[in-house]
Structures are given as structure tokens and as C-alpha cells.
Amino acid sequence: MSIFRRSKPADPQPVAPDEADPAEEAVTDEAGAEEVPTAQAASPRPGGPFDVNDVEGREGRLDLGALWVRGVQGMELRLEVEQESQQVNAATAVLGESALQVQAFAAPRSSGLWEDIRAEIARTVQAQGGTAEERTGDLGTELRTRMPSAGPDGRTVFAPATFLGVDGPRWFLRGVLSGRAAIDDAAAAPLLEVFRGLVVVRGGEPMAPRELLPLRLPRDAQPEPEDDESAEGTGIDPFERGPEITEVR
């Protein structure tokens, strides 16, 4: 599995933190621990993604800090690094003409985030002239979107993306399928295997809901340099031009 590091200017956080103080969140967790078990906020995950307490060791997964990732044949792993802080903000698995972006966030003990975040993404897409439609997939409710942009000839084209969300114990995992995987189930299958194989390491420190769980460059791997052409062709922001299939109207 090849690993690429890609620097990028700071962007607004894809999942905005709630207006909550981390210390206050910690007190709330302690006070409500007996009344509202963590399991109530988590989605059933018998086939993954997994919490770190669900597995015995990494089992061949790559340690990125808050996420452990297991690759598939032919996959490239691209890490998005914010230029100023040098913080790894996201990881993207690239396979052929398809990509899967993954990020993990802190979540309240008492409730999940995916339902609210799904609605927020849909409103954002629709406000920009795109479409958003929910459907039930193997991982629960998905959000399928199409974002309009101007093609080379000036005509409007639509870039598809599929948003995945899983509520775990005090964490939320978001995935974004783009490229051919957003419209072709066969192309999506190996990337969904990667998503289901993820392990989330939440940690015990107090964090505000929706705060990004920290990722890091793997200690046991040397990232390969990425040229400008490659970087431009595999952007991980679902609202940027990345690996995509366009539909002309």
C-alpha cells in the first residue's frame, strides 16, 4: 500500500464543533453515564467499523492515531496535512478511479451525530444548487449527492458523492465515496471493505462534540512524495474537483 502526504491550506472544519466546552462535556459524560449507556448512542456494528475495544491488536492495520486502516490490493493511502499546523486532517483511500475519504470526530455519550450531520450536509448541497437523497445501504442510511460545476465547455456537470456515517461509542466516523464508487456499486465494494475494516481509537480525554479526532503520519512507514499533477487529481474534499464521474445536463 503506497502512502502519500499532501499539504493543503487550512479549510473550515467539515463537521463544525458544537458550541460546548470540553470540560463541560466531560462533566456531562460522568453525570449521565449511569442513566444513558454509551451503547445507546452507537449504531450496531457487527461487521465494522470497530471501536478499539472491539478488536485484539491492530491485526495488520496501519496506525494513523485515531484510525487504524487496513488496505486492499492496489490501494493508495493519501493523508491530508494542514500546512500551518502540519496536522493530518483526513485520510483517503484511492483505488483506480474511486476514492474514500475518512475522518473521525468526538461525539456525545448520550446521542449520535449522523442524523443531524446528514441533514446539514443535505442543506449545504441543496443551497449550492445540488441534489441530496437518502437511501439505505449496508451501513445504514447513506446520503447521495450531486454537486454542479462548470465543465470545460461551459456546460453544467454534476459530480456525485456518497456520504457514509457511523455512530460509535463517543465517536462519529464519516466516509465520503467519490469518483466511480459514487455511482457504481461494484467500484464501491472494495472501498466499503476498507471502511468496514476501520478501527476508531477515541481516547479518554474530554473533547467537544464534533471535534476532529487527531490523525498522524504512520511511524512505521515513509510517505512517498506526490507531484502536483497527482495531488490535483486526487483531492479529498467532496466539494472540490477530485476523482469524479460527471453527468452532463
Automatic annotation (TrEMBL):
Residues 18-33 have a biased composition (Acidic residues). InterPro entries: DUF3710. Residues 238-249 have a biased composition (Basic and acidic residues). Residues 1-56, 210-249 are annotated as: Disordered. Coiled coil: none annotated. This is DUF3710 domain-containing protein.
